[in-house]
Design goal:
Two copies of one chain form a homodimer.
Chain A lengths: L6 E2 L19 E5 L5 E2 L5 E2 L2 E8 L9 E5 L25 E2 L4 E2 L4 E5 L14 E2 L4 E2 L9 H14 L5 E7 L1 H12 L4 E7 L7 H16 L16 H15 L2 H7 L19 H13 L5 H13 L10 H4 L6 E7 L7 H13 L3 E7 L13 H18 L10
Parallel strand pairs in A: 6-9, 6-12, 7-8, 12-13, 13-14, 14-15
Antiparallel strand pairs in A: 1-2, 2-5, 3-4, 5-9, 10-11
Helix pairs in contact in A: 1-2, 3-4, 3-7, 4-6
Chain lengths: 404, 404
């Protein structure tokens, strides 16, 4: 794999990064200099900028076996390796790895931390070259198309023109759709999972609650907490708790916790975490703070809220896909109430309207939105089957023939 | 209507109330002295205590036309009069009034602010007689049965033994069920609406987020904000925003707001309220603070979380209703995802198991949980029809024959 002059190993070239709260240990980083700005939908540009990324598997000789994975709101580039901050498995190790549905014995998998993120890519924690201080809210609002444009720059840098596949769930799925719409000739196949072509009112509403929770925390300091050496821990934890409920189904919560009490035999008639579900939520909230940046959370949620693929195409979603040659596998889950099946169906209908090659799988699951991250054999079968068929169609060389 | 020696008009006998943030203008208040404590499920007792209440219509001679209304989490006793703090119509004016489904030309309607509330009844804002300071978190945790026991005390005070009907939605519906279970011989008919016999994991989870938002606000001061002359406005506003989303259906939000922008033609690429739904939520959050007490919010949510009628009856819901002679009209709404129809169905099945007289109406509505507060002709028809039939069965005198 080529390593351009401005690709650095962690610890090198970290200039332009604010103190490493979450950082990018173990990840490769590409630095795009001031002279090569990222054009943004807001009208401005970001320069310089960096992307931290992980790769898995081996790039074959004709570079035809690349699978780009796009992470979700709270995800990062650590798809299939132990996470350097949490020491937990990669967020999609169930899906990606040797012999897995996205088989790293066969495919060269790339995943980059999104622009605006906090695991090594340039985001609101990074130093603003104009002030020498962390950007905070001076960081430009980033859109899903901006993130995709940055990913395309990374691929260009790696000398990769064509994607065999782009895959992702939730916000990652939005990026998959944006890739398919904006880079039609670079995407052979696409797997948008548990996602939508636009954020609904309810989605925006939940995000707004999270943002208000962060901004209500006096330690947020108008976004300048790094400078003032505080951290809006409580606000970010509340935001995460609220979001976390939306990732699970009512049934999943019931099965997992019911009304079970936490380490006690009876109600305490107080405000401690009497119920297991309370204890669980608090844990989710407060561990999130250790690996995620509050301002990044604002920017990531805003990018999702702003996403409306049809609006960018005269209000007609089908127009986004006109002339597409990409093969699509669209997946939804029956109990996902954050991105319900009807949102995926709208995507499929738009694809059908332009006679795209599309398969649609609605998976029976009671795990809610998070099902795409969990052990769902039907999901793995669908992705694996789709990729195998696409690989045959693409005439992909077998692993043994791959080279670097 | 009788007025006992310790019933006072507003402004009188307000001793025992902390500064009147929300207060009880226009409401009657009954004060129960130290010698007449309210026994609580937590094992303690509350004394002295007061209840602020409203009445509508005229009590008939044999006191057989009483309808008790139980308000929801954020409601109060101002059912059918202009609210003294917000100047808005009473929260159930669509349902209660002359000629309405709960017809005040016919029935004598009573509604009391719950114990633990903040509109004149004793709650965490009230002065703790032991310290002379507002209770704050020293206020005992109150349960739904505690609230119902207090209401029974109010009725005793008013010389009313039997309820022709007890009606309410959401948390009010929980109280309706508790009334029917605990005071079988005092309840002729009961209308639990959009409610459940227990709070689910998901319900508890949403409440926990709200509580954490309040407690995360440094102005909450461990619950002693009245003493320290602060107010956890931001925390309470965030709690209300999160809860408010759960009161509406995805469709209702979509119909109301879609992705419409607020007073602007294009996205601003910032964190202002670009979308109408954001502006609406912020408004809901920050106006709530003017009429509701943050600690009361903690106590009301906790009471709902703790509610589990079956658990109080050997885990068998039907046992709660054994031997009941009450006539029930159970109502749910198709788009209510906070208290979905299956929760009402569980109540109906328990009632059927004891051969209770029960009718069950699932109303087609896309307005979500809040449908019970809104213009829903089918709801009004169901309640009106049920009450007319029950009145005939009860042999209720016509309005003209009512006296006081």
């Amino acid at each position: 794999m080529n390593e351009a002059k401005w690709t650095s190993k962690p610890g090198q070239g970290a200039k332009g990064r604010a103190r490493a709260l979450p950082h990018a240990p173990g990840s490769q980083i590409v630095h795009f200099p001031q002279s090569e700005p990222l054009q943004l939908d807001c009208g401005g540009a970001l320069a310089p900028f960096s992307l931290a990324y992980q790769t898995y598997g081996t790039l074959n000789e004709d570079k035809s076996n690349v699978v780009l994975i796009c992470h979700a709101l709270s995800g990062d580039q650590h798809v299939a390796n132990t996470h350097p901050v949490t020491d937990k498995p990669g967020w999609w190790e169930t899906m990606v790895g040797p012999g897995k549905a996205i088989d790293t014995d066969r495919f060269f998998v790339v995943c980059a931390n999104h622009v605006g993120g906090c695991m090594g890519s340039t985001g609101p924690m990074s130093l603003n070259p104009e002030t020498g201080k962390p950007y905070g809210l001076d960081f430009p609002v980033i859109t899903i198309p901006d993130m995709v444009r940055a990913q395309a720059r990374l691929l260009d840098h790696l000398g990769i023109r064509d994607l065999f596949c782009v895959a992702g769930g939730s916000m990652g799925g939005m990026q998959v759709l944006e890739w398919a719409a904006s880079y039609k000739d670079r995407v052979f196949s696409a797997i948008p999972i548990a996602t939508a072509a636009r954020h609904t009112s309810q989605n925006i509403a939940f995000h707004e609650v999270g943002r208000q929770a962060i901004m209500a925390d006096p330690d947020w300091r108008g976004g300048r907490y790094l400078d003032e050496e505080t951290l809006p821990r409580k606000g970010l934890a509340v935001a995460r708790m609220a979001a976390h409920i939306t990732y699970l189904s009512d049934n999943a919560l019931h099965r997992k916790f019911g009304r079970n009490l936490q380490d006690r035999d009876a109600l305490t008639f107080g405000f401690d975490a009497d119920f297991q579900v309370e204890s669980y939520l608090r844990h989710q909230g407060y561990t999130f703070v250790d690996r995620f940046d509050a301002n990044s959370y604002l920017y990531m949620t805003r990018a999702m809220d702003y996403f409306d693929l049809a609006a960018d195409h005269d209000g007609v979603l089908a127009k986004a896909f006109e002339g597409t040659g990409t093969r699509f596998c669209c997946v939804s889950f029956t109990s996902d109430w954050l991105f319900p099946t009807e949102e995926t169906r709208a995507i499929v209908q738009a694809l059908n309207a332009v006679a795209a090659n599309v398969s649609f799988v609605e998976i029976e699951s009671d795990k809610g939105h998070d099902a795409f991250l969990l052990e769902e054999p039907e999901l793995f079968d669908a992705v694996s089957g789709f990729l195998s068929a696409a690989a045959r169609r693409r005439g992909l060389a077998l692993p043994g023939a791959a080279g670097d």
